[in-house]
Task: inverse folding
């Protein structure tokens, strides 16, 4: 039995795709399970080499090849699903069989239909087991919990998969309870809540700061519009008594930072790190932080999990997160430590940050107590163990 990982979002070492793939490779090797990786055709050479991967995919999960407001969703689905299915031919050439398990870590509507098309082109006796993990609630209209234009595409793709793959040969997972509930309804098919498939570095001691130094507040991770970076420059200017560590990974962020004016550019209490970061550099920055600030827009990610949150909890960091999200739910359940902000504004962020600072010693102690359990239960090893048990492969 081999595990084939179809990671079309993997191109470089920034973000979560590469680090989690390395974690899966190591977890499988510890069990004596062979892994084969198929990644994006633009993947860096050292990424391909580290995973012994084949660079085949033309599209990432997040792309839409057609932006026509009416035809775009359907045209993108068909074009990208066919391209995803064609990439399976590499696996077929290398002996993909019914004994194997195909895992798609980042499944959207394109990948769901692409798997259906690929399986339908194979003889039934050769079709592998299928493990699909979903993480993006793009079946909702943006900013709402109302179904959007992609929801019907998900339902159609699922119906196609049901035609070619029996229930006992497929498993659909997400990493949050509310996401599982909503997606199960969209697909008219059970979707199970599973652990975060995360790979963490060994626990690192907090990097000691200068004696009597102000607390360090960090904003880390690859930028997307829902991550709320536009609020950060104003927040930094409001708190000259603190230190800030700001990761700027995109040109959009850089422009937002510069637009805040010369006072921010000259601010001695703000350290800016530019460009994409590999896992080692990213976790080294996180180790320095006293508080991780996640100024995300809750309306744009009502069901979304967060890799940055998961890594921060695993690193025993105090957090400031948006209310009404998966992140706040875990803090409320005692799985980490921090404060939630309600209204998305510089004033609300500032109030939450002040609340975290006032309770920092207690919150830090809680974070340190919660981290070991999180690392053990919300990780790629836990995800893999449960998936293998589902398919009766735990002794493989």
Result:
């Amino acid at each position: 039995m081999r595990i084939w990982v179809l990671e079309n979002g993997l191109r470089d070492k920034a973000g979560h795709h590469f680090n989690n793939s390395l974690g899966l490779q190591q977890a499988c090797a510890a069990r004596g399970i062979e892994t084969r990786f198929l990644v994006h055709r633009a993947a860096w050479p050292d990424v391909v080499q580290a995973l012994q991967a084949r660079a085949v995919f033309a599209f990432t999960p997040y792309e839409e090849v057609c932006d026509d407001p009416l035809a775009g969703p359907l045209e993108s689905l068909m074009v990208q699903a066919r391209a995803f299915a064609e990439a399976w031919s590499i696996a077929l050439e290398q002996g993909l069989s019914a004994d194997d398990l195909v895992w798609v870590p980042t499944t959207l509507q394109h990948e769901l239909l692409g798997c259906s098309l690929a399986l339908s082109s194979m003889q039934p006796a050769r079709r592998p087991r299928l493990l699909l993990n979903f993480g993006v609630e793009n079946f909702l209209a943006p900013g709402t919990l109302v179904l959007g234009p992609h929801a019907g595409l998900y339902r159609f793709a699922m119906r196609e998969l049901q035609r070619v793959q029996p229930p006992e040969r497929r498993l659909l997972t997400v990493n949050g309870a509310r996401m599982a509930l909503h997606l199960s309804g969209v697909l008219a098919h059970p979707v199970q809540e599973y652990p975060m498939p995360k790979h963490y570095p060994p626990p690192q001691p907090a990097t000691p700061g200068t004696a009597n130094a102000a607390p360090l507040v960090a904003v880390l991770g690859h930028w997307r519009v829902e991550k709320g970076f536009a609020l950060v420059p104003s927040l930094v200017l409001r708190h000259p008594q603190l230190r800030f560590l700001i990761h700027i990974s995109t040109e959009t962020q850089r422009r937002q930072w510069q637009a805040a004016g010369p006072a921010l550019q000259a601010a001695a209490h703000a350290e800016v790190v530019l460009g994409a970061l590999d896992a080692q550099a990213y976790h080294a920055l996180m180790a320095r932080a006293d508080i991780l600030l996640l100024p995300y827009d809750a309306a744009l990610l009502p069901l979304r999990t967060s890799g940055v949150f998961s890594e921060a909890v695993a690193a025993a960091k105090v957090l400031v997160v948006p209310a009404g999200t998966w992140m706040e739910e875990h803090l409320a359940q005692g799985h980490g430590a921090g404060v939630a902000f309600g209204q998305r504004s510089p004033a609300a962020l500032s109030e939450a940050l002040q609340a975290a600072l006032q309770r920092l010693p207690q919150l830090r102690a809680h974070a340190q107590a919660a981290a070991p359990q999180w690392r053990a239960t919300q990780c790629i090893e836990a995800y893999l163990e449960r998936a293998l048990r589902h398919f009766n492969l735990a002794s493989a």
